Amino acid sequence: MRFMSSLERAVQTRGRFPAVIDGETTRTWAEVGERVARLAGGLVAMGVEPGDRVAILAMNSADYLEALYAIARAGAVSVPLNTRWSVEETAAALLDFTPKVLIVDAAFRDQAPELRRRAGIASAIHMGPGPVPAEMEGHEALIAAHAPLPDRSGSGEDLCSLCYTGGTTGRSKGVMLTHANLTFAAVNWIASLHFSDETVFLHSAGFFHLAGSIPLFALTMAGGTHVLLPKFDAEAAMETIQRRRVTYCLFVPTMINTLVNHPRSADYDLSSLRLIEYGASPISLSVLEAAMARLPDCRFIQGYGLTEATALTLSLPWRHHFESDEGPSKRAATGRAAYGIDVRIAPPGGGEELPRGEAGEILLRGPQITPGYWNQSEQTAAAFHDGWLLTGDGGFMDADGFVHITDRVKDMIVSGGENVYSKEVENAIFAHPAVQDCAVIAIPSEEWGEAVHAVVVFRPGRSATFEEIRAHCRARLAGFKCPRSLEVRDALPLSAAGKIVKAELRAPWWADRRRSVG
Amino acid sequence: MRFMSSLERAVQTRGRFPAVIDGETTRTWAEVGERVARLAGGLVAMGVEPGDRVAILAMNSADYLEALYAIARAGAVSVPLNTRWSVEETAAALLDFTPKVLIVDAAFRDQAPELRRRAGIASAIHMGPGPVPAEMEGHEALIAAHAPLPDRSGSGEDLCSLCYTGGTTGRSKGVMLTHANLTFAAVNWIASLHFSDETVFLHSAGFFHLAGSIPLFALTMAGGTHVLLPKFDAEAAMETIQRRRVTYCLFVPTMINTLVNHPRSADYDLSSLRLIEYGASPISLSVLEAAMARLPDCRFIQGYGLTEATALTLSLPWRHHFESDEGPSKRAATGRAAYGIDVRIAPPGGGEELPRGEAGEILLRGPQITPGYWNQSEQTAAAFHDGWLLTGDGGFMDADGFVHITDRVKDMIVSGGENVYSKEVENAIFAHPAVQDCAVIAIPSEEWGEAVHAVVVFRPGRSATFEEIRAHCRARLAGFKCPRSLEVRDALPLSAAGKIVKAELRAPWWADRRRSVG
Predict the structure, then answer these.
(1) Which one of A236, A343, A490, A501 is at 20 to 30 Å from B144 when CA atoms are compared?
(2) Confidence class of residue B515 from pLDDT cuts 50, 70 and 90?
(3) Residue A183: which of B326, B340, B397 has the nearest Cβ?
């Protein structure tokens, strides 16, 4: 299984058709193929060798898409970085995987000198609009200057990409994804979520996140058309759907709600939409009904996945959103196993399969599962039990094989589709001089699904405002990880063993609703 | 990639829905799962160990389907045998792969004693209707007597199945198919040919052929419903399509023609059909138009594959059967690369890719390609060039990446979807005492696509009738390999190097038509 096979197929079978539409720029698959091969030549000329890591810190763009494939064609490992991270977080990751080259765009050119200095990165590339800084190579100049590089990409178990996620210990972890992981994930996405060469897909997630990159890789395999927005908002999305006749989007339910109920929704022709995949949380019946009325030719599929399983592992087909001859609606479920994926509910931490209906931890196995974390053998060992990946998500499987996610085993918050590990936020808050004790929990949020909430005990005679605590965190963490609310207590509830009882802190927030994570 | 993952998924997510309808017998996926696990227990009790081969010689049935999965669950290698072979041919194959157990049904019970004696097979199972012979175990008795065996199946590069095809040297070759080959082929089929859990598929090809077994494995992965006919004919097919509301068939174009133009076609309700995949040869416009008129809700997709590539490697989507904004009709083509499959046209025998439009041999690479032939390292080496499989099919790729198959590089005839190697037939004819020289070629056939035609030079003063030659062959070869016509000549045309010029023999037969193989 060769990751590059997907792009080669698109070039071979869809050469004269649009590959990517990025603002006013449209490139065909033949153009993308040629540019990728030349850029790969440029990377090799810069000293990139098979197995080297190349980092990308940029907003979504046609150039970004090319860079991902050029890195693979050169036999190197792409590492797309979270654009919402602080410089601290980015620098820590760069030191972890030591890239040979750093690629940035105009949004991150100012961070580049400090990041390169701190991580000792000799070479950098500037892509997209804006002048190329003196100490960098230009993306276009590299393409112009180099002949197409014959393919030297890897295959099978060779490492193809690293995807960094937050870590339970506060240190972010690089999930290793192989050619086999990514190739199977792409064909599985096509099979489960119905991409084709007729799909015109509007990207709404950053390419640093698998919710952005796996549809990118799958749609390339299918030979469809990528539509990019530099910055995603509801009105820009609607304008682009109308103008580019977009057929397929991937949204969180909040975004579907916004699209349907936006005051200017009726001004746009959204009739080209055929399928919306949604994730991160179940969809309410009221939002679904409003969406069906507004978009009568569109269907909705729920997808669930995680970075360690190369995205898609469960999906909820359209017809199971409703009662039918086959049985009741499964809308409250997250989905059932995608193709080739083994799913099991077991006691937390792993073990034998539990009977249907009994809650436990969701375990996964199959060709999409990561071989582990970069440079972190202990964390890797802890993530698996007897060959099964421990997802950290809790739930049960019903009699029809649909998984209902009800809780999270790991102490993690999913806010706006991003994973936030409580420990990482707690570490930052603890560093504030006024803080004696703290606990970070998820509370419900209409907008984000869950929001980061801090419960703090101050040192005797000391205190700080919410704004001070938040600013203190913001200097250390990405914005999405910082608390959105603060609660001050005299003491935290402790178990007999002296452990903080987070369930007690969460209880009043979740009293009238079931915690629905997904 | 675990082959067994597909059945486990079907049991987990479609347990109470019909898995297989075989005449009056219907079994759910839960029942099939339970019976497979118990039968696997029976096989292990009979001494089957991981890696052992288990042969099946039977007509399609629900029991056959179970046996294929039970063998895999026990960690063994299934070898479904061609039901049209002579006892000679079957015995030769059995001696090649030395099975631990032979499974037969009522149609082959009489052959079993001789086959077991000649190949030294200690154990045998009888499945399906009819009394169980004293020296065999019964399929049902094994299921009843044994507890479900915990899964001990292999994965990845472990051998899962052997599929025997005719050989260029006259010795049939066992194509080794791994868990990875079969798993990728199944998900690729779902992605390319649109199987789902709503698919009700009428099997028309024997399970010993990949045109029978790969849809079997793919539909199991999708959790759909298999519909079986013990013996396939047009009227039985139409009756079953109507009765079982079949949605999907795999046919050769001749069969589509029969279905549409059959005198009793109008008596049957075929309105449930949504997709017909066809193969072995392109479809004529007249047949396609008649089929579209008769089946207005049905679409047609062409598929091409070969055993060494685990079936599907090229497909021709429905919309490319017609002229459109995208360009002219591609109906004359065989198709373009399936997902994850690398396709290249190179000089016969392999090498660098030829320019578009230039004819050469079709080469394939990717996760579906066999690691080689069982016990035949020389034939394996000859089948590959620089990591690419040599298909033996000649053709060109057009500017849009569609492959047009125009010739066959190997001296092979494809008759009714079966590969016939000329050499094998010539060897049989040479053994006739009256024959001095002979050549076997393909001639066009309305019914079979191609037919086996023998050109013979008799010894001075000797001769034989067509019937005598055919009967002589029939004693040695499967019926489909025996000549359907005979031409007697004084001498065969020879090249300067003394090689028979088959092109000259073929020319008059193919004068007014392009040889269209696929």
Answers:
(1) A343
(2) very low
(3) B340
